[in-house]
Write a structure and sequence with these properties.
It holds the Pfam family DUF3817. Residues 17-108 form the DUF3817 domain. Keywords: Cell membrane, Membrane, Transmembrane, Transmembrane helix. The chain has helices at residues 9-43, 50-80, 84-93, 99-117, 123-126. By secondary structure, the chain is mainly alpha-helical. It has one domain. The radius of gyration is 19 Å and the shape is elongated. The relative contact order is 0.19.
Length: 133
């Protein structure tokens, strides 16, 4: 079996730092959107009133934040060379309120474990020898 291409740990960690910021921003933006929708449809009972205006202003902002989250998630997924189901999970984490906060932690764990287990370009610099699984 051929040796897998090594990961670039520096690029992966930089990509994760960007993704982490986007995950937190998406989580906050989604919570704000949910709060606006509750105010619009449940509390005020007037979907076209003030909360309707706020909703029309916030929804596109949230959409842009989610698109940035997906692009940065794709960048991390691509650098880690994970399989497609993991990318689908990353996208799902940004759609369910509060899940992006937990998902970011789970993704961090996956990344750290993969960097520990898989060969990286920085192994030679450290003089590290990785065990073969």
């Amino acid at each position: 079996m051929p040796t897998p291409r090594p990961l670039d740990e520096v690029a992966v960690r930089a990509s994760f730092a960007r993704f982490r910021f986007a995950a937190v921003a998406e989580g906050i933006a989604l919570l704000v959107l949910v709060a606006i929708m509750v105010m619009r449809y449940v509390i005020s009972g007037d979907p076209e009133g003030t909360w309707g205006s706020i909703s029309r202003a916030w929804s596109p902002i949230h959409g842009v934040i989610y698109m940035v989250y997906v692009v940065l998630g794709f960048d991390l997924w691509n650098k880690m060379r994970w399989k497609l189901p993991r990318m689908l999970l990353i996208m799902l984490y940004g759609v369910v309120p509060v899940l992006s906060f937990f998902g970011e932690r789970w993704i961090h764990g996956w990344m750290v474990e993969d960097l520990r287990r898989r060969p990286t370009l920085q192994d030679e610099e450290r003089g590290a020898v990785r065990p073969v699984d």
